[in-house]
Design goal:
Layout (H helix, E strand, L loop, with lengths): L1 H6 E7 L13 E2 L2 E2 H12 L3 E6 L2 H9 L4 E3 L7 H12 L7 E4 L9 H13 L4 E7 L3 H4 L6 E8 L2 E8 L11 E10 H9 L4 H6 L3 H6 L4 E5 L10 H10 L3
Parallel strand pairs: 1-4, 1-6, 4-5, 7-11
Antiparallel strand pairs: 2-3, 6-10, 7-10, 8-9, 8-10, 9-11
Helix pairs in contact: 2-5
Length: 247
């Protein structure tokens, strides 16, 4: 584990830009800002050096006051991938880190085992990028365009190779549908290539950044997990997170 931790960075992009829940990263959950709960989950994963990447001095100050590490990044990044790439170059200019895990900054109840699971396809297979999916069991989610579906083919136990991601209901016919969980693990070279590419046609059409990788021939493998983590986007989500994390 010690050797692996030197090879892996767990980067948590966080911004104050949420309109549905203003100042979301600093929202209070049992006396701690939401972003610190996400950092706690990354610490508990014990798989690599956890760092919050932000353009907000207030977020950085909260992280540092808790003994955590924060790195300032540009406010102009179009996506979390660009933000973590800038952070990677700042934190590890010598290129020691082989893997980068991108943990969204609004997942305070994330199971740390999912962070560890995301790295497995890069450790034992040829994937450029790895991510997580879970089988959809709620019928309403199957037709909900806000629930992104991974169209993928089985390649092993609880392992799929992604062929496409879509907001539509797909694939057709009998069989499971998979909800994509937006937590990514990258090989360093894959992240560097990804951010160098222009937005792709299907990425722009579906508004799904991961399609850029597939459209440019990069391989994304998926780990099937039991349940999706709660993303906090609204005041109601925040109340749910408070209940789940109640001491």
């Amino acid at each position: 584990m010690a050797q692996l931790s030197k090879e892996t960075l767990v980067l948590i992009p966080a911004r104050m830009a949420s309109t549905r829940l203003p100042d979301k990263p600093l929202a209070d959950i049992h006396g701690r800002p939401l972003i610190l709960h996400v950092l706690d989950r990354a610490r508990e994963a014990a798989i690599g050096r956890p760092v919050v990447c932000t353009d907000s001095e207030a977020i950085a100050a909260a992280v540092r006051a808790d003994g955590g590490e924060a790195v300032m990044t540009s406010a102009d990044h179009p996506s979390g991938s660009d933000r973590i790439h800038e952070a990677l170059r700042t934190l590890d200019p010598a290129g020691a880190a082989r893997f980068v895990i991108n943990v969204q900054g609004d997942l305070p109840t994330l199971d740390p085992t999912l962070i560890r699971a995301s790295l497995a396809p890069l450790e034992d297979g040829p994937a450029d990028i790895a991510t997580l999916v879970t089988e959809i069991t709620d019928e309403a989610e199957k037709t909900n365009p806000n629930v992104v579906k991974a169209v993928a083919t089985p390649i092993g136990e609880n392992r799929l190779r992604a062929l496409y991601f879509t907001r539509a209901t797909a694939p057709a016919g009998d069989g499971p549908l998979y909800h994509h969980i937006g937590l990514y693990a990258y090989r360093r070279a894959a992240l560097e290539r990804f951010v160098s590419l222009p937005p792709s046609p299907l990425e722009q059409r579906e508004r799904l950044e991961q399609l850029r990788a597939l459209e440019n021939g990069m391989r994304i493998d998926c780990v099937i997990v039991d349940t999706p983590p709660l993303g906090v986007d609204t005041p109601a989500d925040l109340e749910t997170a408070r209940r789940l994390l109640a001491r």
